[in-house]
Structure formats: structure tokens, C-alpha cells
Amino acid sequence: MKILSGIKPSGYLHLGNYLGAVKNWVKLQNNKKDSGLFFIADSHSLTENLLSASEKQEQIQELAIDLLALGLDPRKSTLFIQSHIPEVFELAWIFNCLTPMGELERMTQYKDKSSRQRESVNAGLFTYPTLMAADVLLFKAEAVPVGDDQSQHLELARETARRFNKRYGKTFPEPKALLTKVARLMSLKNPLEKMSKSASDSYIGVFDEPTAIFEKIRGATTASNDLFEKIYSVQGEIVFEPSRRGIEHPEFEKMEAAVNNLLLLLQEFDSDKFKSLFSNNGIDLDRLRYSELKNDLAKAMVAHFAPFRQKRADLMRQKKKALKIYQAGAKKARITAQKTLKEVKKKVGLI
Ligand code: AMP
After folding, report:
1. Residue bearing the CA closest to ligand 1, atom 14
2. Is this prediction's pTM over 0.70?
3. Using an 8 Å Cβ cutoff, are 142 and 1 in contact?
């Protein structure tokens, strides 16, 4: 199966990106039956805050190194930078002319982001999903690992494939979403929102210093034990039983989400500790100490990322060599890209 996925360079790779995307890519690339294309969506990132040329270039280069440090391997996958494949922009234009405005207006990410960056709602933000459809369909990818924030965009890519095929004859497969286990990691401070880069104490950077990891985990929102009678783990799903003590709390939902998020992280980084918390009757809340749990979690996280931090430091010393990997990847990927674009242009009548 041909798998493709991308990530924007926006200055900081956080735990949501890691658990929702990159960790899964590294796993998928080891599956011999699949072929993976993974790319840095530099052009998509221009829809966000505009930076100076040197800042943008630094973000792209750092992400290129981060992905290698986390285990993406050019011997197993094709790695490239989006703007090095100019065919994608030609295909995106053709898709723009095929996609009704109404469909793009319905995209929740567009609605969210345009309401947050009111003064700078650019057209790129609006046509973000058609460029993403071009990313995927240019390579005729069959599966796209995504966090659930990208599911709607992927559905649009599927619809674009159907629409194109109907009008011009079978050309593209309909790519399916591969939802990761941690499809939505929540913010540490406000667990009703997904973890993102918007507030510095709400996310943990994959390459954060150990002291920062401890500090941020320590400051994560939790709940008082008397809000829950029991917390069960039913086949890995965490289930909360609201307190029978009749306590009504206005922030119940937030606290439930907070505890869920912490337990999810514990399950990822220290599964033994996670399992040990649950007996057949659920968590014994009288014994649950959040400070202890947070300390164990932070310790496990620091240990998990230590080898990656070391590899990143090594790669930083040979940056040029690392960047060449992406140039070679683009060269290889362009062969398929040019072939698909030629086929599309012929079918549309441009050549
Ligand atoms: P982006 O930074 O938007 O380019 O996202 C790169 C990848 O990380 C996408 O597959 C997203 O779905 C995933 N991702 C971003 N934030 C989260 C989150 N909080 N939880 C899970 N996945 C996420």
C-alpha cells in the first residue's frame, strides 16, 4: 500500500505531532508491504504567521533534522520538502477549479483559523484542503495516516478523487484515512482544546529540555479525586464513573478530559505503570496521587526522548548531509509527480 503524510514546519514539534503522526510514520515504514512518502509541508505553513525568510528556512531545516532524529529513514521511505515538487501546485490549481466554494467554506479548520486570525485570513487558508488533496493524489497514495483534525480534509481529497474520476475517467484511487491511536492529544492547560503551539505551557516539545518536561507536566490540569468514584480501563479505553457523592462541579468535563489526557500519555510512555494503576475494580482513587503519577510520567517521557535528543544533536553537526537526503527524496518523488501531472493535463485538455 502506498502511504503518504505531511507535517508543517511551524517552529516546534510537539507531543501531539509525535503521537498523532511521526511515531506512527516510523512504525509504518517498517512494514515491508507498504511504501511511504513523508514530506515537510512548507508551502502549507505559509498560510500561518508570515515570518522572515531566514526564520522560515530555519524552521524547515530544523524539522528536516527532527524527523530524521525521530527515526524516519531514507532507506525505507521517501522524504522530501513539498515546495521541491512544483507539480503539486499545478495539480492544486486544477483541483481549485473543480471544487465548489461551499465545500471549502464548510471546513472546520478554515472556520476555526479564520476566526482566530481575523486580520490575516488569506486565500491560502481557504484553499489549504485542495493543496492537501493535490499532495495526496499526485502520488496516487492509497492511505494517509492523520490525526483526527485532518479527517475532514482527507474526506475532501477523497471527494476530489471521485469528482475527477467521474468527469475525466478513472485516474485516482480514493485514499483512506489511517487514524492513529492517539488521534487527538489535548492541551495540558485546557484539555478541552487539542494540543497545539498556541500557548507555550499547553504543549510539550519533543526536544524540550528535561526540566521543561517536568515543569510542564507538573503544571498540567488535573482533577480532585472526589469527582470520580472510579476510573475503569475497558480494553484500553478509559471510562469515568461520575461521583455518587453528589458533587456537582462546573468543570467536570474539563477535569475528566485532563485526567484522560494524562492517563493516555502514561499509557504511551509507561505502560507498566499504567496497567498497575488499574485493578479489576478500576483505579483505587484513594491511592491515586497525581503528583506521583506526574513525576513518573515526566521521568518516562524524558527517558523515551533521550536517544532522539542525542541523535538530533549529532545530526545538527552535519546539517548539509541531512538536507541532501530530502533533495534526493524530491528527485525520486518528482518522477511519479511528473507522470501523474502529465496524465491529468492530458485528460483535462491542457496538453
Ligand atoms: P500539523 O502541525 O498541522 O502539520 O500536523 C501534523 C500532524 O500532526 C497531522 O497529522 C496532525 O493530525 C497531527 N497532530 C497535530 N496536533 C495533534 C494533536 N494535538 N493530537 C494528535 N495529532 C495531532
Report:
1. 17
2. yes
3. yes
Per-position pLDDT tens, the chain of length 351: 999 999 999 888 999 999 999 999 999 999 888 899 999 999 999 998 789 999 999 999 999 999 999 999 999 999 999 999 999 999 999 999 999 999 999 999 999 888 877 777 899 999 999 999 999 999 999 999 988 889 999 999 999 999 999 999 999 999 999 988 777 899 999 999 999 887 777 899 999 999 999 999 999 998 877 778 788 888 778 888 876 555 567 777 888 899 999 999 999 999 999 888 887 778 877 777 889 999 999 999 999 999 999 999 999 999 999 999 999 999 999 999 999 999 999 999 999
347 assigned to active site: no
Report how far ligand 1's centroid is from the alpha carbon of 179 (Å): 11
Query: Does residue 193 have its Cβ closer than 6 Å to ligand 1?
Result: no
Report CA(246)–ligand 1 centroid distance (Å): 38
Q: Is residue 81 helix, strand or coil? A: strand
Helix (H, G, I), strand (E, B) or coil at 163: helix
Distance CA 84, CA 334 (A): 9
User: Is the shortest distance between the CB of 261 and ligand 1 below 6 Å?
Assistant: no
Contact call for residues 229 and 244 (beta carbons, < 8 A): yes
- CA separation for the pair 169, 93 (Å, rounded): 19
- Is 194 catalytic? The answer is yes
| Nearest ligand 1 atom, CA 182 | 21
Ligand 1 in reach of 20 Cβ (< 6 A) = yes
Site to probe by mutation for ligand 1, drawn from 10, 12, 149 as the one with most ligand atoms within 8 Å of Cβ, is 149
Chain centroid to Cα 87, Å, comes to 24
Contact 297, 303 (CB under 8 A): no
Eight-state DSSP code of residue 29: T
| Spacing, Cα 261 to ligand 1 middle (Å) | 15
243 CA distance to ligand 1 middle (Å): 33
Nine-digit cell string for 104: 471549502
Q: Which residues contact 89 (CB under 8 A, 6 or more apart)?
A: 43, 131, 134
